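Retry 2 of 3 after timeout on previous attempt. Resubmitting C-alpha cells to design endpoint.
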C-alpha cells in the first residue's frame, strides 16, 4: 500500500504532460458519461524516424485522481519510445508504473490504455514511416479464437507479429460482447495480443465503415435489394485499411484468421482487378469446406491478395481450437460470431428503422396474378426466397418471389416459381477466362452450384452477364453476390440482379 500511495502521489502532484498538446498531435480519448471519468492522450510521432519515435506526448483528464495519475504514467512510459514498443503497453504496465492500484481504481489504467492505443492507431495511420522489415507481419485480430490462433502461428513461424483491431461500429443498442468490431472487442483483442507478447494497435474506422458499408447496405434495402455487406467490407474497406497501415509500419504482409488459401505466384506483377489480364495470384477455398470464407473475400483485388496470408487455410476448426487450448488462450472455446458485426444483437428491422429511416410501411402481399392475399409491414423487410413471417395462410407453403420497393408490393408463390436455371449478374469481374468457370456460390456457406458463364467472356469487367446453372435452383435475392469458381479457386464475382 505504501508503494501504491507513493506512485499515485508523485503522478498526482507532478503530472507529466498534463494540459500539453504536441504541435502535430494525434489524439485518442476514452471514458465519458457512463463512468464520469474522461481521458485524452495526444502524441506526435516523428515521420522521419525509422522506428516511429514518439517525439512528445501530453494528456488531459477529468474525474477521479487515479485517472489523472494513469494519464501521467502513460506519458512517462511513451515519451521517446518507438511506436511499436509503446504499442506493447497495457493496463498492467500503467498500473505497475503507478506502484499498483486498488481493485476499485484499476479502471483508470484501462481507460488510459484505451486512449493511448486510439492515439497510437491514429498516429500510425497519419505519421508513421517505419522502416520495412521482411520479418514483420501485421495480424488482423478480432478478439476471437480464429484470429488469435492466426497470430500465434505467425509468431511461431519466427516472424514479428503486430496485432491490429478495427473499431468499426459503436451503438448503445448493440451487444458489444457479441460484436467483432466494438470497443469491447478491441480491448479483448489487445489483451490477447499482449498476452502473446505482441504489440497491438487499434484503428478507429467508424466513419469509413459507415460511409463505405452501412450506408450502402441501408440504401440497397431501401431500393428493395438484399446486399451482402461483408463482401463489400472485405473488398474495399477493412482489409484495404489494414494493408495501408502495414505499409506505414514496415510490414508488406497481412495475416488474418479467415479460412481461405492463396494459390499462385506471390510477388508477381500487380495489376488492377478487371483490367483484362489474368491474375497470377488467386483465392482458393479452405481445407475446412464447412468454415470456408472464400465467398466473403471474393472481392479482394489481386494486388491485395498478393500480400495476404491465411494461416488457418489448411486447418479445420477443431484443430484451431485445440491449438488455442494448448497455448492457454482464454478464447479457445469462445463461440463464433453469428450476426453482422454492426447488428450484434439488434433486430434487423429495428436497425433499418433507426439508422435508415426504413420503418413500417404497410402494403399488399399479392400472388403471381396480382390478387391481394394479405398485408406486409414494408417491402424492404422481405427478401426473395423467404417463407416464414408472411402472416398469411395457404393450402401450400408460399415463398417471396419478388419485392418492389417503389410500388411497395411483395409477390409470393409456390417454391416451383422460385426455381430457375439462369442467374443474371451485373458488375461481373473475372480474374481468368470465363470458360473455366464450373461452379457458383450465392450464399456465404451455400453449396457450389454447377454452372457455366454464357457468351465466352474473358478476364476483365463486364456490365452484365448470365450464369447458366446445370440444374434448376432457387432464385437468390437481387443484391447478393455470385462468387464464381473453377474447381476450388475463386475466378470472379458479380452482383445478382432481377
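Retry 2 succeeded. Sequence:
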Amino acid at each position: 500500500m505504501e508503494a501504491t500511495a507513493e506512485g499515485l502521489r508523485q503522478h498526482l502532484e507532478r503530472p507529466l504532460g498534463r494540459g500539453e498538446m504536441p504541435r502535430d498531435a494525434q489524439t485518442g480519448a476514452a471514458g465519458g458519461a457512463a463512468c464520469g471519468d474522461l481521458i485524452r492522450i495526444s502524441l506526435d510521432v516523428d515521420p522521419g524516424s525509422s522506428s516511429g519515435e514518439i517525439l512528445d506526448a501530453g494528456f488531459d483528464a477529468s474525474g477521479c485522481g487515479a485517472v489523472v495519475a494513469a494519464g501521467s504514467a502513460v506519458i512517462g512510459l511513451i515519451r521517446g519510445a518507438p511506436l511499436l514498443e509503446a504499442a506493447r503497453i497495457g493496463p498492467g504496465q500503467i498500473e505497475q508504473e503507478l506502484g499498483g492500484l486498488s481493485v476499485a481504481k484499476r479502471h483508470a489504467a484501462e481507460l488510459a490504455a484505451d486512449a493511448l492505443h486510439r492515439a497510437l492507431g491514429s498516429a500510425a495511420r497519419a505519421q508513421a514511416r517505419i522502416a520495412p522489415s521482411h520479418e514483420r507481419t501485421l495480424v488482423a485480430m478480432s478478439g476471437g479464437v480464429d484470429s488469435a490462433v492466426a497470430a500465434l502461428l505467425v509468431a511461431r513461424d519466427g516472424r514479428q507479429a503486430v496485432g491490429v483491431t478495427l473499431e468499426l461500429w459503436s451503438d448503445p443498442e448493440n451487444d458489444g460482447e457479441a460484436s467483432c468490431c466494438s470497443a469491447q472487442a478491441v480491448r479483448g483483442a489487445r489483451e490477447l495480443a499482449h498476452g502473446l507478447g505482441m504489440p497491438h494497435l487499434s484503428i478507429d474506422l467508424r466513419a469509413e465503415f459507415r460511409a463505405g458499408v452501412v450506408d450502402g447496405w441501408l440504401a440497397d434495402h431501401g431500393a428493395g435489394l438484399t446486399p451482402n455487406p461483408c463482401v463489400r467490407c472485405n473488398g474495399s474497406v477493412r482489409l484495404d485499411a489494414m494493408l495501408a497501415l502495414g505499409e506505414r509500419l514496415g510490414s508488406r504482409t497481412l495475416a488474418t484468421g479467415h479460412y481461405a488459401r492463396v494459390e499462385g505466384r506471390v510477388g508477381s506483377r500487380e495489376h488492377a482487378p478487371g483490367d483484362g489480364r489474368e491474375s497470377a495470384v488467386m483465392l482458393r477455398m479452405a481445407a475446412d469446406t464447412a468454415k470456408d470464407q472464400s465467398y466473403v473475400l471474393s472481392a479482394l483485388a489481386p494486388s491485395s491478395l498478393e500480400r495476404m496470408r491465411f494461416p488457418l487455410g489448411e486447418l479445420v476448426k477443431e484443430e484451431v481450437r485445440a491449438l488455442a487450448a494448448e497455448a492457454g488462450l482464454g478464447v479457445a472455446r469462445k463461440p463464433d460470431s453469428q450476426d453482422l458485426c454492426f447488428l450484434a444483437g439488434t433486430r434487423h428491422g429495428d436497425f433499418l428503422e433507426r439508422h435508415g429511416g426504413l420503418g413500417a410501411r404497410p402494403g399488399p402481399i399479392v400472388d403471381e396474378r396480382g390478387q391481394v392475399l394479405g398485408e406486409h409491414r414494408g417491402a424492404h423487410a422481405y427478401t426473395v426466397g423467404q417463407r416464414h413471417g408472411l402472416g398469411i395462410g395457404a393450402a401450400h407453403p408460399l415463398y417471396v418471389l419478388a419485392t418492389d420497393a417503389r410500388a411497395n408490393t411483395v409477390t409470393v408463390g409456390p417454391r416451383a416459381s422460385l426455381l430457375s436455371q439462369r442467374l443474371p449478374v451485373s458488375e461481373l469481374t473475372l480474374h481468368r477466362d470465363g470458360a473455366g468457370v464450373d461452379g457458383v456460390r450465392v450464399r456465404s456457406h451455400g453449396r457450389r452450384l454447377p454452372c457455366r458463364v454464357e457468351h465466352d467472356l474473358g478476364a476483365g469487367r463486364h456490365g452484365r452477364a448470365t450464369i447458366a446453372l446445370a440444374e434448376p435452383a432457387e432464385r437468390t435475392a437481387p443484391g447478393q453476390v455470385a462468387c464464381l469458381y473453377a474447381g476450388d479457386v475463386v475466378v470472379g464475382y458479380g452482383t445478382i440482379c432481377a
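Attempt log closed. The two ends are 70 Å apart (CA to CA).
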